[in-house]
Amino acid sequence: MSVKLLKSLLFKISQIQMQIEREQQRPRADWLRLLRLKKVRLLLSERLYLMFGIPPHRLQPCRVNQRR
């Protein structure tokens, strides 16, 4: 497995986490969107575990600087 794939999965998980946080801060959060985002985050975390052996509870939330 490559480091590039590992970085890609970690980046996607952090992007999803940021979207979840943004949605939760809205006055009337869309619970269906939150449910879908959390499901995608879980699937990515499981893939990370299966491919690299990194358990989901070991992941630390972090901010990612986005290029604009």
Summarize the structure.
It contains two helices and no strands. The chain is mostly helical and 68 residues long.
Provide the descriptors you would attach to this structure in a database record.
68 residues, mainly alpha, single chain
- Mean pLDDT across every amino acid position: 86
Instruction: Evaluate the radius of gyration.
Output: 13 Å
Q: What coarse outline follows from CA principal-axis ratios? A: elongated
The number of distinct helices, counting runs of at least 4 residues, comes to 2
> How much helical structure, as a percent, in the residues?
55-70%
Structural class: mainly alpha
| SSE order, one letter for each helix or strand | HH
> Strand-residue fraction?
under 5%
Poorly predicted ranges (pLDDT <50, ≥5 residues)?
none
Number of strands: 0
Give the termini separation. Answer: 30 Å
Largest sheet: none
Structure description:
With 68 residues, the chain is an all-alpha fold. Helices cover 66% and strands 0% of the residues. It is built from two helices and no strands. The protein has helices at residues 3-25, 31-52. The longest helix has 23 residues, at 3-25. The protein is elongated. The mean pLDDT is 86.
List the topology elements.
Elements: H1 3-25, H2 31-52
